[in-house]
């Protein structure tokens, strides 16, 4: 299967701990997006990469959040000193850059984070 | 700023009947794309259908069609011949076509339940 994968699918952590999530995009996609979805809401944009460059960050992405895509392939999203308000589904999506063909964003299954 | 409004928190439809899920949007961008995604309980966002703001004809994909009324800024999803497997959350989303992230802006979703 060559879809977007995310790991882990579920994470339970105690307040104050650090967590890291991984996303593996579709191999030929050069754009990678992170979204956050809280209960009863649609996904909200956090940040995106084109190849290894992080080009935009939402105001939702506080200083406790950091994302990387070191080799332009997989990406990690780290949350430091987790808070209960960080409990959410974290979705990753990938696509081609504009003008390179099908620009549809393909989503992974998400990582559901619960902070106790 | 972009705003997507889905006014129906929940909808019920009899199996084999058609159902319309409402979506209105607000944007100052002259060029944009409209999307519908399905999110089953597993969490993955599944792309259903796309409509470009300059497309003259309404988009169709199998049992899905998008009723696009640009002047009213509405992009309703019509599902024909509902099936039990259609029970899920449905999200309307918009992406402005301009430089930058081209990220998706989502509505709050409609939970569709198909009744046997």
What does this structure look like?
- The complex is a heterodimer of chains A (116) and B (116).
- With 116 residues, chain A is mostly beta strands.
- Chain A is built from no helices and eleven strands.
- In chain A, strands 2, 4, 5, 6, 9, 10 and 11 form a seven-stranded mixed beta sheet that branches. In chain A, strands 1-3-8-7 form a four-stranded antiparallel beta sheet, with no helix packed on it.
- In chain A, a hairpin with a 2-residue loop joins strand 5 (44-50) and strand 6.
- Chain A is globular and about 45 Å long.
- Chain B has 116 residues and is mainly beta.
- Chain B contains no helices and twelve strands.
- In chain B, a hairpin with an 8-residue loop joins strand 10 (88-96) and strand 11.
- Chain B is globular and about 45 Å long.
- Chain B starts with a strand and ends with a strand.
- Chains A and B meet through strand 5, strand 9 and strand 10 of A and strand 6 and strand 11 of B.
What is the SS-derived class of chain B? mainly beta
Low-confidence stretches of chain A: none
Structural class of chain A: mainly beta
How many E-type strands of chain A? 11
Distance between the termini of chain A: 34 Å
How far the N terminus sits from the C terminus of chain B, by CA atoms, comes to 41 Å
Most extensive chain contact?
A-B, 24 and 22 residues
Compressed to H and E, one letter per element, the order of chain B equals: EEEEEEEEEEEE
* Secondary-structure element pattern of chain A, one letter each: EEEEEEEEEEE
Q: Count of helices of chain A? A: 0
Oligomer: heterodimer
In percent, how helical is the residue content of chain B?
under 10%
* Helix fraction bin of chain A: under 10%
Number of helices of chain B: 0
């Amino acid at each position: 299967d060559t879809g977007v994968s995310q790991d882990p699918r579920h994470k339970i952590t105690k307040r104050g701990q650090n967590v890291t999530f991984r996303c593996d995009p579709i191999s030929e996609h050069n754009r990678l997006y992170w979204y956050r979805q809280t209960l009863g809401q649609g996904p909200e944009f956090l940040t995106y990469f084109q190849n290894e460059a992080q080009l935009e960050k939402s105001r939702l992405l506080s200083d406790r959040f950091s994302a990387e895509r070191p080799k332009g392939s997989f990406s990690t999203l780290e949350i430091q000193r987790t808070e209960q308000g960080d409990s959410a589904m974290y979705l990753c999506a990938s696509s081609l850059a504009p003008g390179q063909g099908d620009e549809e964003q393909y989503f992974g299954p998400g990582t559901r984070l619960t902070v106790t | 700023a972009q705003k997507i409004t889905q006014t129906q928190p929940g909808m019920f439809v009899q199996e084999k009947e058609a159902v319309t899920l409402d979506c209105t949007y607000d944007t100052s961008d002259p060029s944009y794309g409209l999307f519908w995604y399905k999110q089953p309980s597993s969490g993955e966002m599944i792309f259903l259908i796309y409509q470009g703001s300059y497309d003259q004809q309404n988009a169709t994909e199998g049992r899905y069609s998008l009723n696009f009324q640009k002047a009213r800024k509405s992009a309703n999803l019509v599902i024909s011949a509902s099936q039990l497997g259609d029970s899920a959350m449905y999200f309307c989303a918009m992406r402005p076509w301009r430089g930058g992230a081209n990220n998706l802006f989502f509505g709050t979703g409609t939970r569709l339940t198909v009744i046997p």
